[in-house]
């Protein structure tokens, strides 16, 4: 499974990365939306952990590109703000699967990400049996 973490706080993103790597997930960590957009255009990810407020750029632009370029990839949004606290993020990002607080315990976030990354892999396998 491949995961992309877009998190403005490199230390926090690193904690999440280590928890996911313990679950044998191949993780790429970036802080800026522009870097995420570049990677999404070149590499395939099963799941993206997307900070609603990346260091620079727009999380919704990243989500739009994911939907266009990698429609089977699932997005787990994280935030430390009240934006979209009403759940409306699911109206704006069709492949949003979860919306959690940045303060979610890292092992819980890793379990959520692993679940949605595995789900993406399972769906692809069912559609394209070898």
Briefly, what is this?
With 130 residues, this protein is of the alpha/beta class. The chain has helices spanning 10-22, 33-42, 59-69, 89-92, 106-127; strands spanning 2-6, 26-30, 47-51, 74-79, 96-101.
Structure description:
By secondary structure, the protein is α/β, with parallel strands linked by helices. The protein contains five helices and five strands, in the order βαβαβαβαβα. It has helices spanning 10-22, 33-42, 59-69, 89-92, 106-127; strands at 2-6, 26-30, 47-51, 74-79, 96-101. The protein has a five-stranded parallel beta sheet, sandwiched between helices. Helix 2 packs parallel to helix 3. The mean pLDDT is 88.
Tell me the layout of helices and strands.
Blueprint: E1 2-6, H1 10-22, E2 26-30, H2 33-42, E3 47-51, H3 59-69, E4 74-79, H4 89-92, E5 96-101, H5 106-127
Quick tags:
21% strand; globular; 130 residues; 46% helix; five-stranded parallel beta sheet
């Amino acid at each position: 499974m491949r995961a992309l973490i877009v998190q403005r706080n490199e230390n926090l993103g690193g904690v999440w990365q280590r928890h996911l790597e313990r679950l044998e997930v191949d993780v790429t960590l970036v802080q800026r939306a522009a870097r995420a957009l570049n990677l999404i255009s070149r590499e395939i990810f099963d799941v993206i952990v997307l900070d609603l407020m990346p260091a620079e750029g727009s999380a919704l632009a990243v989500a739009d590109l994911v939907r266009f370029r990698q429609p089977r990839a699932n997005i787990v949004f994280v935030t430390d703000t009240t934006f979209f606290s009403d759940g409306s993020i699911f109206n704006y990002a069709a492949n949003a699967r979860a919306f959690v607080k940045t303060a979610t315990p890292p092992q819980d976030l890793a379990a959520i990400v692993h679940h949605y990354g595995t789900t993406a892999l399972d769906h692809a396998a069912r559609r394209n049996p070898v």
